[in-house]
Amino acid sequence: MDDSFELNKANWNERAALHAASPDYQVQKFIDSAEHLSDVVRFDLRRLGDIRGLEALHLQCHIGTDTLSLARLGAHLTGLDFSCASLEQARRLAEACQQGIHFVEASVYDAAQVLGEQRYDLVYTSIGALNWLPRIDDWAQNVAALLKPGGRLFLREAHPILLSLDETCEDELRIAHPYFEHREPVVWDDEQTYVQTEATLTASVTHEWNHGLGEIISALLRHGMTLTALEEHDCLPWEALPGQMQLGADGEWRLRSRPERLPLSYTLQAVKNR
């Protein structure tokens, strides 16, 4: 597992500057407009509700665009990520936007220990995070430990059914990868990242794991959480299945043919028992 984390960290350290420079993350829009929010946060605004004044923690915050968006909605934010290069970009963005956000470098599995006695009203995880974690139970344990009694987890994530599909197949939906959590990672070797850039990565090998929806919910229940909302969506913010998807006016990608066949992402909320 340690080797996997080191491989993934090297990969994300290389991606950070490329993502910050790409129009996909809209960094300049954040700087130019104090009202600008990330598409990911905007998608879930009605589900988030009023978060003004809440102490909030964004796990796996990357370069901080979603973190900044939550802060602009009035919460007091801490962002945590294992990539020092990502946090460097996140701090630059927050400073450029004159937004006070506390950023911490740590693995999610060490979050509760590193943050000490601090407890939060809201723990937030945005899309494309859980697949980098080998064990979902350790994640759930840290989430529960970091929340105040009655505090809320807010998670939007790629659907595990989507992550089990062969993304190279352009004419059908074909299962190629595990749906359930598995000990050995799915190993990728890809010199490209997912934003518009001509640069290539030298730290190209990454390790990923899938976690079934039941496994995620069961882990949260085991650690003293109560599920309060679960909504599956026919869309997500990137072209996960090239050749089979189309971009909507809302910035979300959907299957071009019969989108009702497949959940692509979901939003989950859970509250820590008092």
TrEMBL record:
GO terms for molecular function: methyltransferase activity. InterPro entries: Methyltransf_12, SAM-dependent_MTases_sf. GO terms for biological process: methylation. It comes from Ectopseudomonas alcaliphila. Coiled coil: none annotated. Residues 57-153 form the Methyltransferase type domain. This is Class I SAM-dependent methyltransferase. Its EC number is 2.1.-.-. It holds the Pfam family Methyltransf_12. Keywords: Methyltransferase, Transferase. SUPFAM superfamilies: S-adenosyl-L-methionine-dependent methyltransferases.
